[in-house]
Queue: 2 jobs
Job 1
Amino acid sequence: MSNESSLPAGSRVLLASLNRYDQPYPVYPLGLAYLEGGLRAAGYRTKIWDANVSTGTLESCIATFEPAYIALSMRNIDNVQYHNPRSFVGELLDCCRRIRSVTTARLILGGSGFSIFPKELFAMADVDYGIVGDGEVSLVRLLQAIECGGGLDGVSGLLHREAADAIQINPFSARDAAFCTEPVHDPELLRAYAARGALPGVQTQRGCPLRCCYCTYPLIEGRRSRYRTGQNVVREMRKLLSLGVSFTFIVDSVFNTCVDHVVEVCEALAAAKLDMEWQCFLRPCNLTRELLELMRRAGVRNVEFGSDSLSDPVLKRYGKGFTYEEIQQSSRYANELGINCCHYLIFGGPGETPDSVGETLARAQSMPGAFYFAAIGMRMYPETPLWRDLAPEKNGETAGDYLVVPRFFLEPPFTVGGLYERLRRQQLHWHNWAVGDPPPEFLDTVAKLRKRGVRGPMWEYIETLQRLASTQEGGLRVD
Ligand code: B12
Ligand code: SF4
């Protein structure tokens, strides 16, 4: 997984993905493919080490590749499950210690998780630099500045230490991040992920201008939308097809913030008649039947709606900018057109009441063909509208207090245990409903389906499996 050898050691960059979380499936490190594209175009030699699929240890990889720089990617901070929290910060700190014990290579930290708590993670982890937001342009600029002894002011989103260890932060500018490099896909890495059921990502745009109260996406990618052309997306899908990938995930924060963009990409994909299926995140609004029909012609198989609630007062407090009626209509169109759809719901955020929970549950039963993923409470992240409203600083708390131990907002009088029991009970009766990670028996069945060549995220099969399990003793029961 490298373009090794004859260049001087100073130009070698090891790209390391620390993410080994495998729910709902292992996620292909698309961010590293972008970094690799930028670095190679600038003449750097690269190699990827991936905690999920690399066979040797990180230390042995460092020993053989002898990089001058190590770019560490931190995707997940935690699993965002209030009832079953799992933090990944310890793994990052441990990894930095291990690296420092075997090399003097410069360590640079980035990734979506890092971009949410940059100051806090930079202060805790033993790294030389951090980069917030899009990495491909900034990383190359940083390495060139180090090598030429240039100033670091022009590196968007950079964190570094000045005299007396004061942390210097350059603002991240989505304006600088033009989203113009192409990802470089490593065939070996892709194959290893495909074998584990991953759906490699394709990104058609960056940035989200909206302001849902809990959301970190505009902080990670900026608020300014930047688009790839339809032809560019077709070219990438073709490249993936030639590497054996025939089901992808459009990883845009939301695919349909701009209808013109959806039309351009889908018309190009439909005209190209690729044998590629895909899925994406959608806002359940501004979706006409014609637009969904076009998406279907372009290859969409599943859509994931960020609906969050089915109660209008709650949707308003969450800052969603759409109503239950629009959710219902979007879901109905998808169902009528044979597109699998699921809705993500967040229970217990600002404005939630026992009545609004009841309303959402009742309405969830009335939308045909939909699957639901229920989450409890809102993970609190710095700089979000929710954070600004609650202003934890007024109580003497800092962002760091919210990092290592994941902390959630839960509207009184709810308790995490009470709400979990309530939502989990639904799973006994509703087979199209999931709270948290699926049970281990389900994962075994999924692994068998994947071995038989079944593609996709599998939630479209959970309903059937849960129905079967509820009728079989010793099968998939919910305790
Ligand atoms: C698509 C997506 C998913 C899809 C993935 C589909 C797929 N097949 O790939 C699904 C639905 C499966 C998913 C699941 C989960 N996700 Co998710 N997901 C995303 C999303 C929207 C986009 C990720 C992406 O691919 N971006 C495109 C690539 C190109 O960008 P990137 O990886 O960030 O890399 C760029 C920069 O970060 C940077 N960079 C990356 N690494 C490095 C390293 C260095 C050194 C430098 C300099 C720069 C750098 O440069 C890259 C190129 O510009 C992000 C939110 C967001 N907008 O970022 C959340 C996000 C990554 N997910 C998140 C989480 C938590 C999860 C889950 C745990 C479930 C959950 N409860 O949400 C699981 C975990 C899955 C796993 N096994 O790891 C969090 C992670 C942070 C956190 N809060 O802990 C995010 C940020 C959303 C959030 N809630 O804040 N996810
Ligand atoms: S939840 Fe979706 S639409 Fe809302 S701000 Fe986040 S990315 Fe944008």
Note: The radius of gyration is 22 Å.
Job 2
Amino acid sequence: MTGLSYFENAYSESADPWNLVSEYEQRKYTLTLASLPRQSYASAFEPGCSIGVLTGLLAQRCERIIATDGVAAPLQEVAGRAPSAEVGVGTIPADWPAGSFDLIVLSEVMYYLTAADRRHVLERARDSLLRSGHLLVVHWRHSFEEAECDGDVVHAEVTEFATEVGWSRLVHHVETDFRLEVFGCDAT
Ligand SMILES: C[S@@+](CC[C@H](N)C(=O)[O-])C[C@H]1O[C@@H](n2cnc3c(N)ncnc32)[C@H](O)[C@@H]1O
């Protein structure tokens, strides 16, 4: 797993190390939100939320959203973007919140985890995702130094896991830089 010190250093140098307010990210978030099969969700979990740009958008569609990050620094900004979000420090897969969710969002976080931890994350998602729920996964496709693997590897693993546990792939969007998929048992 990419050590948390890497992220702590990144946040000590910049409040927004990945420029999550960029046009590229805004367009990706628009596609992310448009890909959700349902207009509203009762209870969502978004690990690796960073400064909460996506959290703020998701919160408008979710009655309840839990947003966590392995690093505390960016979380101070989440309340301003998503006042209703329940925000806390937490590292996946270890700090998976109790309860069930009808939406789990893994956005640009899985490639930082080891293969074993990625598998644990998917197992925890399987255990906490309601039958009516959706798992949304979106990742940058290219290799980069800090990542354990690229986004295509992450999505291939999720697709294989989905087959194993009987989830259907409801959305499949691939472009040069990122890949976005939604899995679930039900289409609506
Ligand atoms: C590239 S940012 C993604 C932000 C957000 N998910 C998005 O798509 O806009 C990655 C974030 O994941 C966090 N992170 C990395 N590994 C993590 C882990 N194992 N558990 C929780 N958060 C983690 C980092 O601290 C960082 O804030």
Note: The helical segments are 4-13, 23-35, 53-59, 78-81, 115-128, 151-165.
